[in-house]
Amino acid sequence: MSNPYPTTPRRGFHDLSRALGAVHAELQQLVGEVSLAAADVPANGLPAVADIGPVRARAVYRARRQRDAAFGKDMDLFGEPAWDILLDLLVADADGRRISITSASGAANVPPTTALRMIAILEERGLIERSDDPCDRRRSWVTLTDRGRAATCAALSWKEK
């Protein structure tokens, strides 16, 4: 009797296709949970943090982590640590939480050195800012700048049809 699951490239593509299908189904479910019907976009065209941005940021971040789990060792194909950091900071901002550099690095889901490099780049480009923790000199906080918040919300403000 022949093996119904050969270990050939064709089998690998089949597994990949099935994983993509599962991610697609989850994204469709998440899109269904988010409605822009009541969102008012200000005159400058950029939604405020209180609008749809944090809701979408949570959904997008969750879908990205599910995609990573579905692809397992191949998850490195989809790395966007800067985007993951921005999503995490937007959600934290909406929840009134402060995020340490260590926590932001964890949100990036990459090695710490890569996350720290991305945090430095985001800071250089004016999208985030660091501040020292007055109670613990070993810790620094990161937050979105107004520019970073506006750009992240704008990227999340697509309209559903």
From TrEMBL:
| Domain spans labelled HTH marR-type | 70-161
Alphabetically ordered keywords of this record: DNA-binding, Transcription, Transcription regulation
Transcription is among the record's keywords: yes
Q: Which InterPro entries match?
A: HTH_MarR-typ (IPR000835), MarR/SlyA-like (IPR039422), Tscrpt_reg_MarR-type_CS (IPR023187), WH-like_DNA-bd_sf (IPR036388), WH_DNA-bd_sf (IPR036390)
A Pfam family for this UniProt protein?
Answer: MarR
Protein known as = MarR family transcriptional regulator
